[in-house]
Structures are given as C-alpha cells and as structure tokens.
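Lab notebook, bench 4. Still working through the backlog of constructs that have no structural model yet. Next entry is a single chain of 135 residues. Request: give me the structure tokens for it.
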Amino acid sequence: MRNLILTLALVCGIFACQAQQQGDWYVGTGDINNVAWTDWAVSPTIGYGVTNNLMIGMSLNQASEEADMDIDFHARYFWKGFFGYLGVDGFSTDGMSIGAGKMFTVRNNIYVDPKVVYNTGEGTTNLTLGFGFKF
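Model written out:
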C-alpha cells in the first residue's frame, strides 16, 4: 500500500497542472467511483469555464440498471492549482457532494482530476477519479 501511495504521488508530481480559463469546455467521464472494484459507476459529464476560476457542469448518472437516469449539476472553484467541488443530485440539495481535488494535464488537453468528496445525504467520503478532454 505504501508503494502504491508513493507511486501515485510521484505520477501526480510529474504531470503539469494547467489553470482553468474562461471559455474552456470540459468533456469527460465525470467520476469513476463506488465501493467495490467490480462495481464502478462512470458518469459522462460536460463543463464550461464561466470565469477564470469557476467551472460549472452537469453529468448523467444511473445508480443501477433498474433506476432512471439522473442529471447531476456541479461547480468547481479553482485556487492555486487546486479546486473546491460542490455537486447536487438533480435539483435536490438533500444529497450534496462537497470536496476538493486537483486537475492535472497529462498530455495536450487530456486531464485527470482526482478528488476527495463527502456526500452529505449518505454521510460517506469517497476518493473519485475523473478524466477527459479540455478545449
């Protein structure tokens, strides 16, 4: 486990981070997360840079095969290479997600953004990973 953490820290340190700019578009996976390695959820997402430090977006989410698709909304505020995250499930504030993370540019406009997110409705904290394209 220690080697895994050190490897992740080294990889994150190698990648250069790029500032978010007004007018940038983000298209990606949203978050890859869940409780088991065999039960991941991938949410397609799109975002737009409203100002140089603020990005808003939405993602499609389906909790299970039987459930209907939900539209989730989120915002990120970038500050000194990191970002604060706020997400809501549809138009409900019952299950807000609050977190922090860092966006890394891997190559050209491909990004990876690990973050720690606390869900107020479920009372759980998760490590999530998103990736996609910025243009």
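Notes after review: The chain is about 10% helix and 55% strand. Residues 2-14 form the longest helix (13 residues). Flag for follow-up if needed.
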